[in-house]
Amino acid sequence: MTRIVRIPILPLKIVNAHLIIGSKGCLLIDAGLPGSVKKVEKILLENGLAFKDIRAIVITHAHVDHAGGAAELRDQSRAPIIAHEGDLPQFKREVPMTFCPTGWAGRLFFRTPLPRQSYTAFEPDVLLSNGHSFDLSQFGLTGTVKHTPGHTKGSISVELGSKEALVGDMVASGILIGGVIRTSHAIRPPFEDDPEAVGRELLRLVDAGINRFHLGHGGELDAGEVRRHAEALISMPRRSLVSLNQS
Questions:
Q1: CA-CA distance, 76 to 86, in Å (whole number)?
Q2: What pTM was computed for the model?
Q3: 3-state per-residue secondary structure call for the chain
């Protein structure tokens, strides 16, 4: 039986990574901020696992709170990193991230040091390209890793046979992307490159039968709430997006 376990990188569900635990070990979905190794190890130990049980590390996109600990966690686990070529220049630290704020919270968040925090460059071991997916059966899991662009150019998600999906920052929930109140209410993350593309991908997942969404920020969401959010994104007036450069 497959289990999904949340790894609290920051409190109040402000930043989450996840373990997918199956019959042949586990997958780590996102690596958290730099220095998150101990937090990952704690959850592994609580579930009777160790770094050697991590079969692969899936990085949903190149923002520091998802990719920041990837190089160190690969060193600890010797597990391959799976990611998408669309974010490769950012993973390799060759090109700075740009951020398209979704509102006042994103603009305020950008003024803090966190979004621009540096991390150790790495090159993924498995690099997905547009239109390609990665079958997880070799890890004892029924599911795939697929390209779900919109949050960033190279955003990816994990779709499981249990009708659950781990979608990184395709959608967030709660007030101020956390679990304090309104935890079942979908919101936009602080930054989002292409809301219409995000909406299309979320609708595709719902239409494919996904009924539970696990998020990088906030609590879990059901399909009905994700559909409502996706339809709102698609119907938004088209505007020029303002990008904030990392440098």
A1: 26
A2: 0.95
A3: CCEEEEEEEECCCCEEEEEEEECCEEEEECCCCCCCHHHHHHHHHHCCCCHHHEEEEECCCCCHHHHCCHHHHHHHHCCCEEEEHHHHHHHCCCCCCEECECCHHHHHHHCCCHHHCCCCCCCCCEEECCCCEEECHHHCCCEEEEECCCCCCCCEEEEECCCEEECCCCCEECCCCCCCCCCCCEECCCECCCHHHHHHHHHHHHHCCCCEEECCCCCCEEHHHHHHHHHHHHCCCCCCCCCEECC
Q: What are phi and psi of 225, to 5 degrees?
A: -70, -35
- The CATH number corresponding to 3-239 among 3.60.15.10, 3.40.50.1000, 3.40.50.300, 1.10.155.10 equals 3.60.15.10
> Tell me: the pLDDT tens digits for 153-184?
999 999 999 999 999 999 999 987 776 778 88
For the record, the structure tokens of 71 come out as 């190089």
Instruction: Report the alpha-carbon distance of residue 7 to residue 42 in Å, rounded.
Output: 9
Kindly give, in sequence order, each residue whose CB lies less than 8 Å from that of residue 1, ignoring residues fewer than 6 positions away. Answer: none
63-96 pLDDT, tens digit per residue, is 999 999 999 999 999 999 999 999 999 999 999 8
22 vs 242, more confident = 22
- Please state the domain extents for the chain: 3-239
What distance lies between CA 203 and its chain's CA centroid?
17
Cα–chain center distance at 231: 21
